[in-house]
Amino acid sequence: MSLSDNPIRRRGLMLVLSSPSGAGKTTIARRLLQADENLVMSVSSTTRPPRPGERPGQDYDFVSVARFQAMVAAGEMLEHAQVFDNFYGTPALPVQQSLAAGLDVLFDIDWQGTQQLRQAARGDLASIFILPPAVPELERRLTQRAQDSPDIVQMRMARAGDEMSHWPEYDYIVVNHTLEASVASVHAILTAERLKRDRQVGLPDFVKDLRSRT
Known about the structure:
The chain is an alpha/beta fold.
């Protein structure tokens, strides 16, 4: 259902996907965006260089360290964190505009960013942690995607245990055995979150109108 088909005005929500690198959150996010026109991706700012195939302004907003620090100092970030030698953060204004328009905003961020988002906008947030089915499978996926050197792969594997320890902080947990099942599970969560009473801000007027016609 598109926004124009829904007779009840709704405020959008922030849907967070987190996982260790290689567990599949980015692929799941892409599938969701392809299938749902009411879902938009939050474009993070980062100081790291683009990877092959990444599009500036669409995958990330690539900025200098000085520019990033200025945005943080001005209070323009909903969340920000340092990952290895690089900085990542979410500009607030585009997210706020999307939520007010009834669009849902998808976040591909780590547990640190999720904690900051929860503090900034708890009522708008629904968080999902994606777990790998097994440690050897996680390493295989990291190696197979061929984006990082062997040293970086091992660094990511060493970091995965700490990242996975934060699973209790999330609203939902999805174990990514197969991509299709995981995408279906996340989309079901999104559908349920959209139907929460408090997010349907036009519901009082809708019910009032229904009652007036009985």
